[in-house]
Amino acid sequence: MTKNLEFTVAIPTYNGASRLPELLERLRNQIQTENFTWEIIVVDNNSTDNTAQVIQTYQANWQYSYSLKYLFEAKQGAAYARKRAVAEASGELIGFLDDDNYPLPNWVAEAYAFAQQHPKAGAYGSQIHPDWEVEPSEDFQRRIAPFLAITERGNVPLLYEVKKKLLPPSAGLVVRRQAWLESVPEQTILTGRTPGSMLTSEDLEMLCYIQKSGWEVWYNPKMEIYHKIPKSRLQKDYLLPFFRGIGLSRYVTRMVNIKPLNKPLLLVIYMLNDLRKIIFHLFKYGTKIKKDLVLACEMELFLSSFISPFYLRYTGYLDKK
Length: 321
What we know:
The longest helix has 23 residues, at 263-285. The chain is of the alpha/beta class. Helices cover 41% and strands 19% of the residues. It is globular and about 60 Å long. The protein has two domains: 5-234, Spore Coat Polysaccharide Biosynthesis Protein SpsA, Chain A; 239-320. The model has no long low-confidence stretch (mean pLDDT 95).
C-alpha cells in the first residue's frame, strides 16, 4: 500500500452503532483541513450490532475529499483494533478516537499542526472534557474521573517525563506511524477489555514502548474532545471490575521501561508501596470503604495492583513475551 496521506482518523469500535453517527457528523464538520490530506477508518472490533450497516449507509452518501473506510477486526480487544488501524492507515499520523469521543471542529487541524511543530513527538494526547449523563460528586470527579479518560491538564502543552510515570489515555491520542512501527512489538501482553475480562491498560503499554524508544509523548491542549460518559459507567457494577482491570495490568506497565536486572528489586519496592497504601486506606477509612464508592474503587485498585504480577503469571499473560 502506498502511504501518501498525511493524517488518518482511526475509530476502533465495539457495538458502536448508536454512538458512531454523532462522531462521524463531527468529523464531517472539521475545519482548516484544506492544506493536508486525511482519511477516516472505522475498525469494527467484532461487533454484534448493526455497526457495519451504519457505516455502509454513510459511505453510500459520502461526498467529501477525505475517504471513509470500514474494516472488520475479528480478534476482540482494543489492542488488536488499533494494530489493524496502524497496518491499514495511509496517514503518517494516526489519530485515535473512541466511538464516544466527540472532537471540536478544529481537532484534526490541531492534531496535524502539533506534529509539524514537534517532530520528535511519537505520540500526543488531547485535552478531554467529560460529558456526564449524570454529573457525579466533586469528590468522584477529583479522585475517579481521571481514570475514565478525563484529561484536563491546563492550556499549555506538556511533555510527559518517563520518571513521572504519567501518560495520556488512548482516547484522542495521535501516534506517529513511524514511532509505532519502530517501537511497539508485534505481540504485546495486554489486549484490552473483552467480554468476560476487564483487563485493560493496553494503550499505556503501547505508549511505554514508544517512550522507551526515545520518542517524546506530549499533552496537546488545543486538541479538545468531549468524552460522553453514561450513568451506567458511574455504577458500582461497572467501576469495581474496571478498577480491578487497571490494577491487574499494572505489573506490565510498571516494568516496560525497567532493565531486566533491576526488575526483582523494583517489584519488591512496588509491592511494598501497594501494601502500604492498602494498610493506610484500611486504617484511615475502615468500614466506610464498603459504603463509599470512591473509597471502594481506590481499595480495588490498590489490592489488584498488589497481586498483579501473580495474576498475570498465573493466567499466562506474561508467557506472551
